[in-house]
Specification:
With 627 residues, the protein is α/β, with parallel strands linked by helices. It is built from 22 helices and 20 strands. Strands 1-2-3-4-5-6-7 form a seven-stranded mixed beta sheet, with helices on both faces. A seven-stranded parallel beta sheet has the order 10-11-9-12-13-8-14. It has a six-stranded parallel beta sheet with strand order 15-20-19-16-18-17, covered by helices on one side.
Length: 627
């Protein structure tokens, strides 16, 4: 195929898809065979010039398909310089494109960047190109733009933002990777970074990618709150992908569909900045297509420690192995009192865990699943022998009793604080909820709820997730994957691993659900969680042993429940009254003690377990015989 055929078959249609009018002469904004006249009377012809208001904003050099696109690079560069020198000496230096119909390359030589391939082969729209030129001519220094410390004012957040600014502006890299422990404010840091880049005119349209809808809603709220940004996507009623917003927050799956369907043409140059949350191996293998499609500056966010980040993530964000753009570790955050540390209560459920080793997935099989976009720890064991173990009534009864008796309680000392129970699958979660209600009926079915993507009314205002975050009840969330990563609930004080986890990254993301500290301002704290200086992990499946970790063991110094303290206080007062022959007060205390015992919930599992002891005190003769 010769050059003329290449242009008609491949290049012209690609330009037309992007909204260009292709033809020869001033009536077309993609002006073919554009003539440049030299002072000596000779002329040269540019294959295409992309025009705006009579100025050339980009030149395009075309080669026939059998030649490499790179062979046109120097010719395209010469065209750009000739256009500026001889056609628009007072105008801008054009951008440079060169292509063989299959490969398209872009070069902002004046901006100081090397040329790069546009892997989709798609061109910018006329509006995109106009904005690209405006940005090049008007952007200011990010390094000199103040960071809004009301958004992200901690010392490490400021360092992280400046590290990205320096890498983009001075080192001319187009990718950055931030490694920051869960709970240290990655979203706030990203929001403040967006603020700096918008103020310095480095970015107008920003895409924030997350891996689930709950995180999308959380990130949208952060941008609206901290940037006071009304121009966001999605909004209620959005049925298609709009092209007129400034901040886009979307799941990887939805964004991949936007690119592949192209119902509204979205060019590779549409976004100025892409921020990828939880940028780890599954992102690389499943959603690399999004990262490759857009020619934007890119920032990866991950809580995975730098020595555990997979090499593919370092490749994706153009960082040498083990050298992220910036790192702030969990231990640093705990030392600086920005995160809570944890203690671990190891529970033996009676299940022969060693006997389950045979179903572990080999590293080779795990890698194959990752390449297919499947997290091995998300495999649903529904209907398998393993599920029978997960839903064993005696096993789960013991797990729930450990939580209710040894978990961190609220101020009353009787009810667990906010808790996530990580379940193996939907059936397991529903079984645990049903068992909890059977064991502790006095809470009217509101103590715990199944919060998974399969449940109705999970998302949105007053949905189950909103209730868990912002209301007193439910206290316990039985979750399957949905709450494993990214959910920000400061008040979580108990995490129960009621399933095996075999991914180190996933395991520590799950632990991260409990690390957040409460608000500094005491009046801003939720009434059901006024104090928090640590959180408790109840590990029922030897996950810590599997990963060879030896965490601090639980001191089991749970505060005595309020009713128990009251009972003991009345008992002591009764004894003290008898010691001074004050029988009237002693009788009053005795009556209070009798009523307290009578009011115990009959269906409570703790009451049922101690039924034989309580039977003795039901008889009036027991109480009358005390003195």
């Amino acid at each position: 195929m010769n050059e003329d055929q290449t242009r008609k078959e491949f290049i012209d249609p690609a330009m037309k898809r992007a909204g260009w009018k292709v033809g020869e002469g001033p009536g077309f904004n993609s002006w073919g065979e554009f003539q440049i006249d030299f002072p000596d009377g000779s002329s040269n012809y540019v294959d295409y010039c992309l025009m705006h208001n009579g100025q050339v904003y980009a030149v395009v050099e075309a080669k026939k398909t059998i030649r490499g696109a790179e062979q046109g690079r120097e010719q395209a560069r010469k065209y750009a310089h000739d256009v500026q020198t001889y056609f628009q000496p007072d105008g801008p230096m054009p951008f440079i494109f060169y292509t063989n119909g299959h490969e398209l390359h872009f070069w902002d030589e004046e901006g100081g960047y090397p040329s790069r391939q546009i892997k989709s082969g798609n061109y910018p729209t006329p509006d995109d190109l106009q904005y690209m030129m405006w940005k090049k001519l008007n952007k200011e220094s990010m390094m000199n733009t103040p960071i809004d410390e009301n958004i992200a004012g901690r010392h490490y957040q400021i360092k992280a933002i400046r590290a990205v600014n320096e890498r983009f502006e001075q080192s001319k890299f187009r990718e950055s990777l931030l490694v920051m422990a869960t709970g240290t404010g990655k979203t706030r840091t990203a929001t403040a970074l967006v603020d700096v880049m918008q103020k310095s005119k480095w970015a107008k349209r920003v895409l924030f990618l997350v891996d689930r809808r709950a995180l999308r809603d959380q990130a949208l709220s952060a941008y609206k709150e901290h940037l006071n940004e009304p121009s966001t996507y999605p909004k209620p009623g959005d049925s298609s992908f709009p092209l007129d917003r400034r901040v886009y927050v979307q799941t990887y799956q939805t964004m991949l569909g936007v690119i592949q369907k192209q119902e509204n043409y979205v060019s590779p140059f549409f976004f100025d900045l892409i921020i990828a949350d939880e940028a780890h191996r599954s992102l690389f293998n499943t959603f690399k297509e999004i990262i490759d499609y857009f020619d934007a500056l890119k920032v990866g966010l991950t809580a995975t420690p730098k020595d555990k980040v997979h090499a593919s993530s370092y490749d994706l964000f153009n960082c040498a192995d083990g050298l992220p753009t910036f790192e702030y570790s969990y231990q640093e955050a705990v030392t600086n009192n920005y995160l809570n540390d944890y203690e671990v209560l190891k529970v033996r459920t009676g299940v022969q865990i060693d006997g389950l080793k045979g179903i572990d997935i080999s590293e080779e099989e795990r890698e194959k699943l990752y390449q297919q976009g499947i997290d091995p720890d998300d495999i649903d064991y529904e209907g398998t022998d393993l599920e029978k173990i997960f839903t064993n009534k005696d096993t789960n009864r013991k797990v729930l009793m450990e939580l209710m008796e040894r978990g961190i309680m609220d101020e009353s000392g009787t009810i667990p604080g906010k808790t996530i129970v990580f379940c193996a699958n939907q059936n397991h979660a529903e079984f645990m909820k049903k068992l909890l209600d059977e064991m502790y009926p006095q809470y009217g079915g509101r103590l715990g709820e199944v919060i998974t993507s399969r449940m109705e009314r999970v998302h949105g205002k007053r949905g189950l997730l909103d209730q868990f975050k912002n209301q007193d009840f439910p206290r316990i969330a039985f979750s399957v994957d949905m709450l494993d990563t990214g959910i920000d609930v400061r008040e979580i004080v108990n995490l129960v691993f009621a399933k095996r986890v075999r991914s180190w990254i996933k395991f520590h993301q799950m632990i991260g659900r409990g690390t957040r500290v409460l608000e500094d301002e005491i009046t801003a704290r939720k009434p059901w969680c006024k104090e928090k200086n640590k959180f408790l992990i109840i590990d029922c499946w030897e996950n810590f042993e599997y990963f060879g970790e030896n965490p601090t063991a639980s001191t089991d110094s749970t505060s005595m429940p309020m009713p128990v303290r009251l009972f003991q206080a009345r008992l002591k007062r009764m004894q003290a009254s008898l010691d001074v022959s004050d029988k009237e007060t002693a009788k009053t205390m005795r009556d209070h003690l009798r009523e307290q015992v009578r009011s115990l919930p009959k269906n409570s599992v703790v009451v049922q377990e101690n039924a034989s002891k309580l039977y003795r005190v039901e008889d009036d003769n027991f109480w009358e015989g005390l003195f």
